[in-house]
Amino acid sequence: MNEKKAVILLSGGLDSATVVAIARDQGYRCYSMSFDYGQRHRAELQAAERVARQLGVVEHKVIGLNLNGIGGSALTDDSIDVPEAPSEGIPVTYVPARNTVFLSLALGWAEVLGARDIFIGVNAVDYSGYPDCRPEFVEAFERMANLATKAGVEGRGFHIQAPLQSLSKAQIVQAGVRLGVDYAITVSCYQADEDGRACGKCDSCRLRAAGFAEAGVADPTRYR
Fold first, then answer.
1. What NCBIfam families does the database record attribute to this sequence (predicted)?
2. What are the structural domains, with CATH classification, of the chain?
3. Fewest C-beta atoms under 10 Å: which of 8, 165, 180, 221?
């Protein structure tokens, strides 16, 4: 049986949950991957497990990393405050090399599974200015993936799919609602508490709330 498989990066947030639903709707058997990388809270990992169950992924894998050993981000270094007001340039919530590392591990799992497609929920419209969310990055990683792997060299290449790339946050919400995503079980906040309740002030919370408002969808986010 020639199954269509996909590895999907699943953070537990709104965007990545929508990507799982999109891949499932396209007929993929979904394998989701999350990372315990030293982030501020574990609530997003618990959310990822809930999303994986709700959307019926075949296998959900959590990989342990130590990006807080590198630091350099408000998400991995407790000495750097998460900003609660819009800022200029690349914000301090940018985690150095995060998407590069995450995609590399997803690539390894995809090769083992015989999956040709890797999905990531990056977005170039309503996003925080991270350089590893741009289309140029996705395209460059795909080229590298097909140069650096046995499958790529043998002509069974990989495709990095970023279906949210050109969508607004409101369009992402609308797509997810159509596909049955329960956004109440997702966590997007950069500084959620242990129960997954959002601060309502950080950049991610502001973008999320604006997306629901513009989409005309009631915001199910639990705020503290």
1. 7-cyano-7-deazaguanine synthase QueC
2. 3-213 (3.40.50.620)
3. 180
Q: Which residue has the tokens 């009631």?
A: 218
Whether 199 has a binding-site annotation, put simply, is yes
The answer to the question of whether 205 is labelled as a binding residue is: yes
d(CA 219, CA 154): 47
Query: For residues 200 and 75, what is the distance between their CA atoms, to the nearest angstrom?
Result: 16
Confirm whether residue 189 is marked as ligand binding. yes
If we measure between CA atoms, which residue out of 137, 66, 131 comes closest to residue 103? Answer: 137
- Please indicate if the annotation marks 122 as binding a ligand: no
Find the range with the poorest average confidence among 34-43, 114-123, 180-189, 211-220. Answer: 34-43
Residue 200 is assigned to a ligand binding site: no
Contact criterion met (CB below 8 Å) for 214 and 171: no
Q: Please tell me the distance from the alpha carbon of residue 101 to that of residue 76, in angstroms, as a whole number.
A: 15
Annotated binding residue 13: yes
CA distance 125 to 120: 15
Task: Judge whether 15 is annotated as a binding position.
Answer: yes
Q: Confirm or deny that 19 is annotated as ligand binding.
A: yes
pLDDT band at 86 (very low <50, low <70, confident <90, very high): confident
Residue 129 marked in a binding site: no
